[in-house]
Specification:
The complex is a heterodimer of chains A (314) and B (246). Chain A has 14 helices and two strands. By secondary structure, chain A is an all-alpha fold. Chain A has one domain. In chain A, helix 8 packs across helix 9. Chain A is globular, with a radius of gyration of 19 Å. The mean pLDDT of chain A is 93. Chain B is α/β, with parallel strands linked by helices. Chain B folds into two domains: 161 residues, 3-Layer(aba) Sandwich (Rossmann fold), CATH 3.40.50.300; 72 residues, no CATH class. Chain B has nine helices and ten strands. The chains are: A mainly alpha (314), B alpha/beta (246).
Chain lengths: 314, 246
């Protein structure tokens, strides 16, 4: 799912982003920070959707767990930043192991529904566990360290964390383990008759995806300086799933592309009309109907037609 | 000791007894055919042996090890690989990728999230494809191959697990006469080369009598005869019930 072309695009994009804070406006840097955080969330979800072939409708749960845990460790427990982030990510990994243990027993829509149910459970906890999460009002006033308190430094920090995470996810995707995830997506019966314990592999994928959603969550908590129950709500899970589908789930860079396109659409159309959701919705319908492989698939088929040759991508 | 022993296995699907108190023994190195009319329970028997379904009663023993509680992936790992009656491959992946993923699972690399897969098992994969005469198709999409060639690919995928016992469910189903001949010659050659024990089901009697060392006849879920090809051919009950002769 990753070819040389995609790697070049990634290198170019991240190099461009590294220059951005030195040349761009504060607004553009803030927007890029958001895209990076949600791009990482979408890329982590794609381990399940694109590689393993299991559509999670509750991925935001792990985004929220990572965020709340980081906020709590950093603020309430006053732990150092690195300890808070690593601790929050480990806690998210543990949560995805427990939730995944039940979810991976099911397939297809039943899997999706159970992930949805668990995420609503996490949402309810965030809403009701007031002493820890702040309940309805959210966790307000995360104690972000001084050196990350300006937008410039925070962007570079986010860029660093997201770059490392994306590289790790790409390595996992292209690894022998990633190949077996794809084999499970393509034909679960055949995979098990190769000697693969399908359920165990699905759990491993679930934990990897959840863990990196947790990483994105810690960044969100630091960026917003707060955490709110809506982060775990089903609409957030749906939003990130749309990013994956819009960009193209069968390409590694698809989710990053989808996140960029959707975020930019939302803000540009949002500047012109308060009914921006209608227009974004219409564009999504058109993309899904005209390009089932998402924006990446569209770009690829156009490029193929222009060059009149086959690509080596699958 | 027999390599594979099915002892008194019964499988009932909602009141229908697909396999009834079946006993079957396969010796190491033997090529053993299970024949019988459609619906006789051949595929069910294969599914019981390979762990896809669990029998109500009885046991399956492979080299002294009970397989009853094992999942299909555990059974592959003790040395039994299979093909399916309807081709079961990764149709959207290339022919090479099909055998590559099978090889890397056999090498237990599916637990390694860092080892990059792209260049692994080039030689081993091409060797396997050469064995089934598919080397020249390595880069084609598996689903685009002709049906007979997809069956050959599935054979290569099964062989990647380096099995001791190979189960082939109707290896020539859907093939033309010439394809069937070529395919049987190929299977025979591979079984000899790799010293495999082969258990297969087949509808084509010529094929069966050509390559089987022993034959078991399944009828309404029961084994009605089992023995050398000549014994089975001369068995009165087989003639009457199965071959339709008086």
């Amino acid at each position: 799912m990753t070819n040389r072309f995609q790697i070049y695009v990634l290198i170019l994009a991240f190099a461009g982003l590294a220059i951005l804070p030195f040349v761009g406006s504060r607004y553009s840097v803030e927007l890029a920070t958001q895209i990076l955080i949600f791009g990482l969330l979408a890329t982590s979800l794609n381990i399940l959707v694109g590689y393993l072939g299991a559509a999670s409708f509750g991925h935001a749960a792990f985004f929220a767990i990572g965020g709340y845990a980081c906020a709590y460790f950093l603020t309430t427990l006053a732990l150092p930043l690195v300890v808070s982030m690593v601790g929050a990510v480990l806690l998210t990994a543990l949560a995805s192991l427990v939730i995944g243990f039940f979810c991976v027993r099911l397939n297809e829509i039943y899997f999706s529904m159970l992930t949805l149910a668990f995420s609503m459970l996490i949402w309810a906890v965030a809403l009701k566990w007031k002493p820890v999460t702040g309940g309805d009002d959210g966790f307000v006033g995360v104690a972000v360290p001084e050196y990350l308190s300006n937008y410039f430094n925070f962007f570079l920090f986010t860029l660093g964390v997201v770059t490392i995470s994306v590289i790790v996810l790409m390595i996992v995707g292209n690894s022998t383990m990633g190949r077996v995830f794809i084999a499970i997506r393509e034909n679960q019966t055949r995979a098990s008759f190769l000697g693969v314990n399908v359920r165990r592999m699905r759990l491993i994928a679930f934990v990897i995806a959840g863990t990196f959603a947790g990483v994105a969550g810690t960044l969100l908590a630091l960026y917003v300086r707060g955490m709110y129950p809506e982060t775990a709500f089903w609409s957030q899970s749906g939003h990130v799933l749309i990013m994956v589908l819009l960009g193209g789930m069968h390409a590694f860079i698809g989710p990053l592309l989808g996140t960029s396109v959707l975020t930019l659409l939302e803000v540009t159309i949002g500047q012109h009309t308060e009914y921006w959701q209608i227009f974004v919705g219409m564009i999504l319908v058109i993309v899904v109907l005209a390009a089932p492989e998402g924006v990446y698939g569209l770009v690829r088929s156009v490029a193929k037609r222009v060059r009149g040759q086959q690509d080596d991508d699958a | 000791m027999m390599m594979l022993e099915v002892d008194n296995a019964t499988k009932i699907f909602g009141g229908f007894t697909a396999v009834n108190k079946v006993n079957l023994s396969v010796a190491e190195g033997e090529t053993h055919a299970v024949i019988g009319p459609n619906g006789a329970g051949k595929t069910t028997l294969f599914n019981v042996v390979s762990g896809l379904i669990t029998p109500e009663n009885g046991s399956v023993t492979f080299r002294g090890e009970k397989l009853n509680k094992m999942m299909p992936h555990d059974i592959v790992n003790v040395g039994i690989a299979r093909s399916f009656q309807r081709v079961n491959i990764f149709p959207r992946k290339t022919v090479f990728e099909n055998v590559q993923v099978a090889l890397l699972v056999h090498a237990k690399l599916h637990f390694n999230p860092f080892r990059q897969a792209a260049k692994l098992f080039r030689n081993e994969g091409m060797e396997l494809l050469a064995l089934v005469n598919l080397a020249d198709e390595a880069d084609r999409r598996a689903g685009d191959l002709a049906y007979g060639r997809q069956k050959q690919l599935e054979l290569a995928v099964a062989l990647a697990a380096n099995p001791k016992l190979l189960l082939l469910d109707e290896p020539t189903a859907g093939m033309s006469i010439s394809e069937t001949k070529a395919s049987i010659a190929l299977i025979k050659e591979i079984v000899e080369k790799r010293h495999l024990t082969l258990l297969f089901t087949e509808h084509d009697m010529n094929v069966v009598f050509e390559i089987a060392d022993r034959i078991s006849v399944l009828h309404h879920g029961e084994i009605i005869a089992s023995g050398l090809p000549d014994e089975v051919r001369d068995n009165e009950e087989v003639k009457r019930i199965y071959l339709g002769k008086d």
